[in-house]
């Protein structure tokens, strides 16, 4: 078993990408970048990783370069955050629809207006439709493990899609955590050399990314839909194989102390760790409450989620982003999609917390729990609410 | 003949909608949106070939008997041949079907 060491999570992710023996890294080196690619550039410059590090002029170019690397058959890695992810937007669709395997780590950070560099999920949640596999880590070890699993998943012949590993900016990216870093040899046993299914090759010329006339575009989109949906089974299989090799278990939807709970909180990302500590506290006081977390976000693990919340009366959903003038937070929207029209569906108390780096503390969990308890007791379900806002979401009381 | 139907089911598309057969664009018939077709009055035609020279699609060829003919699988109905014809012998005729 590998040694456990204190490491900054960004540095650990870079070491994990290096252990995966990636061939190409294309990244834009300054804000809103993290130490992930900074450290990778050091590893490459020191000769410890035989890879092409391409420092580009923008994130748009970074993702375009990554597409080229993946199309050439290279194991490709990059990292970004907030505005950088937004600048990649149009190329993200291309990477997915051209079926180009790669792993991108996203340190989830808020989007500007006002300028912010801190943590929430507004960057990734506005990229839900791009056709990538999307997974969420809630601590440094998970981020490391998901990078390693991510390459295996992305390159699996049954998947062949780009994969996004999300982890919270600052709250995780700049945190020093104990990390069990697998060695390159251990990773190699789990992650064999990459054999591309299809690549640019002058001896076997193909055209990637041609025009899709109206006669074929709809079919291309259907293929993209099933590519992501069909990734579910092999992803679960690979999580199982990872557990066999490294002893850490991953599931599409994770639960925590859900036994006999009438109320469950639904969260995603690093906030889960605080939520677990809070659950422990209130459970110890005799209150039956538990936690559900999405590990896999695309494909959306509908059946796992339904199973995880079976029999529950009220769900307290804690989103980290919302659509102004729209239907509230993205996680709550998708949960409603999963449960609409279902008999005995739980009531949903939608809240938005932790925007632009605002801390989410026990007092916030307590507040949300009070709302859930009121709904459990028969009170009408309140509209979605940004609970930490001074002045009140619906005006001053 | 094309290996891949121009209108395949989604299951039959190549990975990432790639085109796996080089030169397959020659199977693409691109003239299906013309709404009128050039018609030559061969009594007036002087077989000069100016229509073929100016055709932006290069779809007008001179037949064995020396008269021009448009390949309607590529003709877009732009009527440049009508404008350029020295003998004013070409007319655009609307296609009803």
With helices defined by DSSP (H or I, 4 residues minimum), what is the helix count of chain B? Answer: 2
CATH topology of the domain at 30-94 in chain B: Alpha-Beta Plaits
Portion in strands of chain B: 15-25%
What is the number of independent domains of chain A?
A: 2
Outline type of chain A = globular
Core attributes:
heterodimer; A: 397 residues; alpha/beta; Rossmann fold; 2 domains; seven-stranded mixed β-sheet; six-stranded mixed β-sheet; B: 97 residues; alpha+beta; Alpha-Beta Plaits; two-stranded antiparallel ribbon; two-stranded antiparallel sheet; 10% helix; elongated
Characterization of this structure:
In chain A, 39% of the residues lie in helices and 18% in strands. By secondary structure, chain A is of the alpha/beta class. Chain A has two domains: 243 residues, Thiamin diphosphate (ThDP)-binding fold, Pyr/PP domains (Rossmann fold, 3-Layer(aba) Sandwich); 132 residues, 3-Layer(aba) Sandwich (Rossmann fold), CATH 3.40.50. In chain A, the strands form three sheets. A seven-stranded mixed sheet of chain A has the order 3-2-4-5-7-6-12, sandwiched between helices. In chain A, helix 3 runs parallel beside helix 4. Chain A is globular. Chain B is an alpha+beta fold and 97 residues long. Chain B has a domain of 65 residues: Alpha-Beta Plaits (2-Layer Sandwich), CATH 3.30.70.20. Chain B has two helices and four strands. In chain B, the strands form two sheets. A two-stranded antiparallel ribbon of chain B has the order 1-4. A two-stranded antiparallel sheet of chain B has the order 2-3. Chain B is elongated. Chains A and B meet through helix 8 of A and loops of B.
